[in-house]
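In response to reviewer comment 3 from the previous cycle, which asked for concrete evidence that the modeling workflow produces usable outputs, we include below a single protein chain processed end to end. The sequence was submitted unchanged, and the resulting structure tokens are shown without manual editing.
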Amino acid sequence: MTDYRGTLQLKRGREKPVENRHPWIFSGAVEAVHGDPEPGDLVAVVDSRDRWLATAYYNARSQIRARILSWEADDIVDEAWWYARLQAAIGRRLALQLEPDTTAYRLVNAEADFLPGLVVDRYADYLVLQALTMGIERRKAMLASALSELTGAAGIVERSDVDVREKEGLPATRGLLAGEQPPPSVEIREHGLRFLVNLMEGHKTGLYLDQRENRALLGQPRFVSGKELLNVFAYTGGFAVLAAAAGAGPITNIDSSVAVLEQAERNMAQNGFDRPGDEYLAGDAFKVLRHYRDTGRQFDVIILDPPKFAHSQRDVQPACRGYKDLNWLAFRLLRPGGLLATFSCSGLVDADLFQKVVFGAAVDAGRDAQILFRLGQAPDHPILLTFPESAYLKGLLLRVV
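The workflow returned the following structure tokens.
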């Protein structure tokens, strides 16, 4: 039997999201907490009539009071349960048949894999774990041990240095969890191309794995062969390497960090691309794009892959202004017939709102555009139908006409 440390009772009429298998219970839905559960403890979730609904882990410090682990009354949530959930998530990745051409991908996608608060990414022989909640924080040593056994990873490092932990009452942390420390640069393959990844210092867990299929789409000769390309927020050159492999013309890479642009150059070299016409420019993307507008510079293909602009609900309006300004500048810089690949990874800005923002930018720029593809996260970052919040990355591939 599951070792419950308390019972979380919902207010009358607030059980429907739980019954519809949404994994979050917010503070406003809670009538009472019986017992004295500590942050991260397991609790039974019951409705106003004490009818059992689910097993969850609890955190009074968070606005999300509980995250549901199981809706099955017969489930015993113990170490064997966690092991089986990990094994199932890994099995779903094996079914994607990404190896051997791709050796970096997500193994566990938190709530979308029925393991709320846990993210695990594979980079060749190493794993990177993010413990985003108190419930996972308390179990991360056990989870790392299970992952070592299930994957045979040489080492597992933690990159729990993300802002969302503050909402759980947790500090940012990083370090080695199991096995051996990875080297400063781990070589991985993506669609047969080679990349060097810094697991301890890189953005997110080292690479933007969710963009993998979008990089492959935009790395097709029909879109980029012989075309002059502007790669904004280039990071370590993922889009650029795939485009270079497809015969793209000169590529201009813009990022605020000199270090990541140097890594982008190394990634080009890893694949034998000697391209003296490419540029690597460190600077503020908005300022650089305005300079290009003022000097009349134009491109055939522009990729906009900015960082997350909206971290909370109050950020949504200023985020939309930022997205509109960015896309307006891109429309002004595109040659007739040019392509714009534009993205948002802000989960609070949904696909419909993002499309409206890009529409407004096109109107203000005086350009007409056609949607060729609607873009999203790679399939190793699945979206759970009952958890729309798991759909965070959205994008459009547009042709200016």
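The chain has a mean pLDDT of 97. We consider this sufficient to address the reviewer's concern, and the full set will be provided in the supplementary archive.
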